[in-house]
Amino acid sequence: MNLKITQSSTFFKIKGILDRSSMDVFNREFKHIFERVNTLTISIEEVEWMDRDGVNAMAALHNEAILKNKKLSIIGLGCKDLYEHFKYQTAS
What we know:
By secondary structure, the chain is an alpha/beta fold.
């Protein structure tokens, strides 16, 4: 399944597979996002699978939010690998 991103104000819903082949879609949607919004919520509930590139893209978005003092919430039970990444980052 291709990656589909829908938006309602500052709430984004990601559906499908977030991998190397869908990075263009992801990057196009979230490029300069924190210049437009102060608070961002992303639902990954309907993400079927995420590879290392997808996890890295979400982590980069998280790091950008921290650097720019913006609020980012990632909600949903979509991807265990993403939660493991943040779990180990917090523990370090």
